[in-house]
Specification:
3-stranded antiparallel beta sheet, single chain, Endonuclease, Chain A, alpha+beta, disordered N terminus
């Protein structure tokens, strides 16, 4: 028996086996690990996290906030990178889907609220919201903790959203009609049909059209059909955020005249002054949702202040609404806008 050197022990544990490159940078399934020659002992190592049964991801691929990093080289059929590394907007849902992808079977796809979030719909976040996964009728719906399985028609349209199989925007909107409120459904539709003022070449908008939603609702007889039809009467083109849609609905239901979302404002000489969230051109009044994101971007907030000053100098009334005015004291907000409209010549 050979002599042990100083500080060595016969019972010292063996060196941890490094994972092959194909199992790093993204979640992987146990089946993939076994194919790569990784044994069960290695899969129980403390450096691996288990987001779902049968799925592992290395701790080094998880950021300090718990967000999974995904290999940037992974691309979907739409040409966009698979899962963005930011945790904002749809990013968090993308990461949750990335955790589940290794065990997603053929003919299964993300649907309902999960799909809505993948499409970026700014819906209210629910605590411990499960993943929604649908399977065509010929495939088995998943049964896992934290996952709600659904059966879909064999003809269901499945598209790739940043490398993730997802229900198409119209089907997604119809699927959530029975599980979200009327206002949330309008928020989602406003988002899906938005043709933004500033285009993102890596995320082509709009995702669908109002005409497509109307045609789908006319043929739809499932759960939520009535709510979907009611929502269509409230959907408008131009809303660029959830608060803008909710503010528009608040003022409209209060009996105020209908506003025009994100319309250009010009002075009497036709000179361009800027765009505003909600515009009442006949009464020279604009309503702006003054969110915290403006203050976080100091340069943008200074531009907003200059834009508001231009409106006022051209004899337009500007009503700025903060989150508290929308969610905590909506009656006071309605009264402020009503007063501005009356000053602009509106007659109830």
């Amino acid at each position: 028996m050979p002599l042990l050197g100083f500080g060595q022990h016969e019972w010292m544990s063996p060196r941890r086996v490094d994972l092959p490159p194909e199992l790093t940078g993204a979640p992987f399934s146990i089946a993939q690990a076994r194919q790569a020659g990784i044994g069960p002992e290695r899969l129980r190592s403390a450096d691996l996290i288990r987001p779902h049964a049968g799925v592992r991801v290395t701790r080094s691929d998880v950021g300090s906030t718990g967000v999974i990093r995904v290999a940037a080289a992974s691309t979907g059929a739409d040409g966009a990178s698979a899962i963005p590394t930011d945790a904002g907007s749809a990013g968090a849902s993308m990461h949750r889907c990335a955790e589940y992808l290794p065990v997603l079977r053929p003919h299964q796809f993300f649907s309902h609220l999960t799909a809505a979030r993948l499409w970026g719909c700014p819906l209210r976040i629910e605590r411990d919201e499960p993943l929604h996964v649908s399977a065509t009728q010929n495939a088995r719906a998943p049964r896992r903790q934290g996952v709600v399985g659904h059966h879909a028609d064999p003809t269901a349209k499945i598209v790739m959203r940043r490398g993730v199989p997802t229900s198409d925007p119209v089907s997604t909107w119809l699927a959530i009609a029975s599980v979200v409120s009327l206002d949330e459904l309008v928020v989602a539709a406003d988002h899906l049909i938005l043709d933004p003022y500033q285009l993102d070449p890596w995320d082509i908008r709009p995702f669908t059209s109002f005409t497509a939603l109307v045609a789908a609702v006319q043929k739809f007889h499932g759960r939520g059909a009535r709510r979907a039809a009611s929502a269509l009467d409230l959907v408008r083109q131009g809303a660029e955020s959830r608060p803008e849609t909710l503010l528009r609905l608040l003022l409209q239901r209060a009996g105020l005249p209908e506003s025009e979302p994100n319309r250009e404002v010009r002075d009497d000489a036709g000179r361009w002054l800027g765009r505003a969230d909600l515009v009442y051109p006949a009464f020279r009044t604009v309503v702006e949702y003054d969110g915290d994101q403006h203050r976080m971007d100091r340069a943008q907030y200074e531009k907003d202040i200059i834009r508001w000053e231009r409106f006022i100098a051209a004899d337009w009334r500007v009503v700025k609404v903060r989150a508290g005015g929308l969610f905590a004291t909506p009656e006071a907000t309605v009264q402020r806008v009503r007063s501005a409209l009356l000053a602009g010549g509106w007659t109830p």
